[in-house]
TrEMBL record:
This is Uncharacterized protein. It comes from the Eukaryota.
Length: 134
């Protein structure tokens, strides 16, 4: 994956990499810094803290880009969150930094940003470059 061009302008590299000292941690730190910059919250410590706390929670401390499990494990969501078909719970599982979940959320996101085709390709919501926009 290509690193964002803004670098570490919104997060402290030393602080972030001391918590997530890996190649993935370095990449995620730069991606998150860009997402924070794009959201316009670089200088708002409370907003940055909330952004990072939610993203860390939704990704199991930045270890997973989507909910992990079998189709059977997601079957209980087949009729929730706007899902209507057998298999929708798995198809529209929680993905991305902020937990896009359920057909309704995927539909709403596609209305806003059709180029991501999240209804026909829901797995694209887990791609980190897309997830930072979501």
């Amino acid at each position: 994956a290509k690193l964002p061009t803004t670098g570490w302008q919104c997060l402290s590299k030393s602080t972030f990499t001391s918590l997530y000292n890996s190649t993935r941690g370095n990449f995620l730190g730069q991606v998150l810094s860009k997402a924070i910059s794009d959201a316009g919250i670089c200088n708002n410590c409370q907003a940055k803290a909330a952004f990072l706390a939610i993203a860390a929670t939704m990704t199991d401390d930045f270890t997973h880009d989507e909910a992990i499990g079998t189709a059977n494990e997601f079957a209980s969501d087949d009729k929730k969150y706007g899902n209507s078909q057998t298999g929708d719970g798995s198809r529209f599982r929680r993905r991305g930094l902020f937990g896009l979940r359920g057909k309704t959320m995927y539909e709403e996101f596609e209305k806003l940003m059709a180029k991501y085709q999240t209804l026909t390709k829901p797995e694209t919501a887990a791609i980190i470059e897309n997830a930072m926009i979501i």
